[in-house]
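Module 6 notes. Inverse folding takes a fixed backbone as the condition and produces residue identities as the prediction. Think of it as a translation problem where the source language is geometry and the target language is the twenty amino acids. Below is one complete input and output pair. Work through it position by position during the lab.
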């Protein structure tokens, strides 16, 4: 479905291994801060900058995202990286989305912990011509000491990345912590949506 002219659409990619409350709150913060029409959740196939040990199958990660988003028209799960296969690069994903949403203002949602490694992303300069970045401050990130030159990009590109640096609710939840708790037999209620908790239990994931 084509987006209406001038609409703003957020893009939230990740392993979602598993998706948790922090992801949903980040998406809601982005939706409110940038007046987005919706946020697209895009589970990756193979992540380019993360270890894949402990990464469960893409079909499970996608199903958990779909379960978490069910009934919320503001959020949508897309399987384009999973269908594409191979290593999931943001520039290729956004290029596909640009074809689908030709007239939309696309905002790629990241956390501030991603900033120091942006220069390592594939074709980051091309990516910045296809979308804008919506960057949210992570707990413990010292924005006062972070300088544009720390991005290791040309000054104009660095300014473009940092123009949408925004405070968000400080929710310190990680998928790593959730996987650890499951492996140790600890409760994960209130860390993930109830539907995700039930899916994990049903399929005996991360045990």
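Target side of the pair, the amino acids:
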């Amino acid at each position: 479905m084509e987006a209406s002219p001038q609409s703003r659409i957020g893009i939230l990619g990740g392993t979602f291994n598993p998706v948790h409350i922090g992801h949903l709150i980040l998406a809601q913060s982005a939706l409110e801060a940038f007046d987005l029409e919706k946020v697209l959740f895009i589970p990756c196939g193979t992540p380019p900058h993360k270890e894949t040990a402990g990464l469960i199958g893409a079909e499970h990660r996608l199903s958990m995202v779909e379960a978490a988003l069910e009934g919320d028209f503001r959020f949508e799960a897309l399987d384009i990286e999973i269908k594409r296969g191979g290593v999931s690069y943001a520039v290729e994903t956004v290029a596909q989305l640009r074809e689908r949403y030709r007239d939309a203002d696309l905002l790629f949602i990241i956390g501030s912990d991603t900033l120091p490694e942006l220069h390592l992303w594939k074709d980051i300069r091309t990516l910045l011509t296809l979308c804008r970045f919506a960057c949210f401050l992570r707990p413990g990130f010292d924005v006062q000491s972070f300088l544009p030159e720390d991005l290791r990009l040309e000054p104009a590109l660095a300014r473009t990345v940092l123009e949408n640096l925004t405070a968000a609710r400080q929710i310190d939840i990680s998928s790593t912590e959730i996987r650890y708790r499951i492996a140790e037999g600890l409760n994960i209620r209130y860390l993930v949506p109830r539907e995700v908790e039930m899916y994990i239990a049903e399929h005996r994931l991360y045990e």
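Reference fact for the lab report: The radius of gyration is 17 Å.
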